[in-house]
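Progress report, Aim 2. The chain analyzed during this reporting quarter is listed below.
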Amino acid sequence: MRKLFNGIKYLFSIYIIAILFLTLFRLILFACEYDNIAKEASVQSGLIFKAFVMGIRFDTVIACYILILPVVLICIHSFLKTSSSALYKGIHIWCCTFFSICLLLSAANIPYFLQFYKPINASVLNWAGELSFVTGMLFQEKSFLVYIVLFIVVDILFCSLAGYIKKRMLRLQEGVEPVKLYYGLTPFVCLLVCTVCFLGIRGRLARKSPIRIGTAYFCNNSFLNQLGLDPAFVFLRSVLDMKKEKNSEVHLMDSSIAIQKVAASLKFTDVSGKTCCKEVAGNDTLPHKNVVFILMEGFCTNLLDKKDRTPFVNDLVRRSIYFPYAFSAGIHTMNGVYGTLFSFPALLSQHPFKTGNIKSYNCWPAVMKQNGYHTLYFTTHDDQFDNIGGYLLANQVETIISQKDYPSEEIHSNLGVCDDYMFRRSIEVLNRVSQDGKPFFATMMTASNHQPIVIPEYFTPKEGSRKDQVIEYSDWAIARFFEWAGKQPWYENTIFVLTGDHGSPAGDNLYDVSLAYHQVPLIIFQPDCDNPQVINKLAGQIDIFPTVMGMLGIPYRNETFGIDLFRETRPYMYFSSDDSYACVDRKYYYVNRLDGRESLYNYAAGSAEDSLDFLSGKAQEMKEYAASMIQAAQYIVKQKE
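Predicted structure tokens for the chain:
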């Protein structure tokens, strides 16, 4: 019996140490978000305590998954005469390996959450093929190094403590005789311990359902609801969900019904083939202007409130056509490129460019090239990241200027050159291509507002956080571009469009699917047109291509999910956030999470209260709108294979 109790004490000690270290990472995440929590008067200490208790529950689930095999082995070993040394050495290696993975995910979860306002999940596997790029980016960002060092220190401490406990346990086991199967209470104790471990894995005593991600949601505060989630639990759950065949594609509703709804909403005239489309008439009286499209990294609408950091963009808004209710397709750059240049919505966590074959679209670059435009794409870093370069070349982008085209001394990180250098180089290239008299369509993807943060020595920002300083630099770089462009002969004959590739968790984040990560400014500036407007229509990245085509007066076949914002109106706008999709109008915000939870918020009133039960009809209408659009897009993408 003593042999069994010694083994149980050993595993329980490992469990306690693991829970303490996992709670430490949770405390650090809480400290990082404390300023945002402190702003909300409704957040009481009792709710914070409950979030940490919830965290221990989820940590226990993962710990019990890891410890169930050692528990069974120790129970069996208590009846045998074999040496304890080999068994405990194997258990030590097992525990150190798997708990180290948990600690690594908990450490990585802190910067991931601060960036995306959600726990780390299977979407990170989208960059598995970009390991060297991502690794370089991590080690070049100083703030990430803190978490890397923290993980190493904590992991060494954990393994050292586990090793010390193992040695003590082996000394206690010396000379202890095994028990016979029929002797005493040992079999019942073994059964009891295994049962407790199994219950720990379930996380709940309720018979109908084990613990789920939704269990962590206990209040109206989005951060506290997510604080209790164990990163390893969320990551493994999302990986398993992705591996299910039914989750390899989007299945939100019947595709034929979705196509019918979308055709009626977007006024498609042809839904018989592999695509849905409509012919858009042109206007021969309008000049074919140049188009410069700037995708600003991580630029959410809330950043315009930082007027001391974004003076130029704020001034540009006052001189432009501005859509304040514009939303990004997703939360990643790949979604931003896909949403704007291809005018297709993000299909939840699917990577649009990492497909078995490169698909052809009648997209923005393709239509522009068909109409005699030079098509160009500028990026600060490697264009092959996310397979974007290959997709753009296959879809009629003639020229890509990327890291390979810049001098090595200007490369400062894995994100390549600074924004202003890319802009300076773009002026040279655009001057050259414009000499033949043909108009050009140029897309410019900035990167400075992304880790690793690099602020060039020749720019002196105001005092403040590095995050605020790099926002200020990004604004300054865009100002320099317009200053240089304003001196070129093609400037007056150009439409400039600016939007964020996605937002960022700036300001108050009331919801677990952060609105700030989707609401982005949409700015259309024409130097020769002094008619600034604020248009409060709902807009999406997918609408930019059709809207600009309407401004150019070019007839084309619209095979996208976008509309011309000057001639059409949306009842709602929708978007994806990896494992969730959402829909908004100017008052309500509907969120559907793939674990089955739905919510409806009055975001215009700043309310975090879920109104789903009171406004179920409104929620259903918004759900059907978003689900039909995403499902129809999935169907069309599938037809391209």
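The two ends are 63 Å apart (CA to CA). The chain has two domains: 2-243, 285-572. These observations will guide the mutagenesis work planned for the next reporting period.
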